[in-house]
Amino acid sequence: MWNQTQIKSHIEAANLLDKIKDDIFEYIRLNKEVSEKEIQEFILKKFDENNIQSDKDPPIVAFNENSSKPHYFPSDNSKTLKKESLILIDLWAKFKNSNEPFADITWMAYYGDNIPKKVQNVFNVVLKARDSALNFVKQEVKEGKMPVGKEVDQVARKIIEGEGFNGKFLHGTGHSIGTTSPHGNRSNLNTKGKKPLSINVGYTIEPGIYLENEFGIRSEIDFYINEKKEVIVTTPIQD
Fold it and tell me: How far apart are CA 228 and CA 141, in angstroms?
């Protein structure tokens, strides 16, 4: 369970990630032939400037077919941005040298004149799964119940599979947020999550659809349930 200092630190880190996310997209707009690796280095520089850090892994930056790999990390000779490209940015960070929790977000963007219909459709399905999972948590809490991890996962997974993407959701709907890693060990929101969510512990909701050798889309937000049984979303929600 997070104490009030940790909750405050998580929210401050989430606010910094949101600002850095905007800086990233502005950097891309001004440097249109930038590589995945160069964007990753720009992010790490911003982390240093704001006294936050990743864990053992750097941020994820993926263009087009690389975004179809949920845990893709760019190499030194990574893909360079071209016109008509999908962009996935996954950031997680906490304040340096502290026992404070991480914040963890994923946002999508498209560089081009018109978003392809298939990309837009997949994006819409992912957002529907994300919002339905969040609304399920809110409804359970409103009814005086603490939702079980696998129940939250089932809500998102049912929507994705119902839209014809069975087998394309390659990870859990979310996870608890830790202090040494963005992945904690409490009541994770996946097919094996048998325990109810906990009060004053941060969680992600991050459904995704991954079409091999084409593209992948993920949208990730953070939330916690406070002592008043209110669901507090701590990160902006991409629409």
Answer: 10
At 185 the pLDDT is 82
What would the DSSP string read from start to end of 16-50?
A: HHHHHHHHHHHHHHH-TT-BHHHHHHHHHHHHHHT
Task: List strand residue ranges (DSSP E) for 96-212, in order.
Answer: 103-111, 203-205, 208-211
Q: Is the pLDDT of residue 62 over 90?
A: yes
How far from 209 is each of 19, 98, 130, 161, CA to CA, in Å?
26, 34, 12, 10
C-alpha to C-alpha distances, 24 to 29, 83, 89, 177, 195, nearest whole angstrom: 9, 17, 9, 23, 37
User: What are the structure tokens assigned to 39, written together?
Assistant: 């964007």
- Amino acid at site 98: S
Mean pLDDT of 56-66: 97
In degrees and rounded to multiples of 5, residue 196 shows phi and psi of: -65, 155
- Cβ-count burial 81-102 (b if 16+ within 10 Å, e if not): beeebbbbbbbbbbbeeeebbb
C-beta of residue 222 within 8 angstroms of C-beta of residue 202: yes
Given a contact cutoff of 8 angstroms between Cβ atoms, the answer to whether 210 and 216 are in contact is yes
pLDDT at 176: 96
Phi, psi of 213, deg, nearest 5: 65, 10
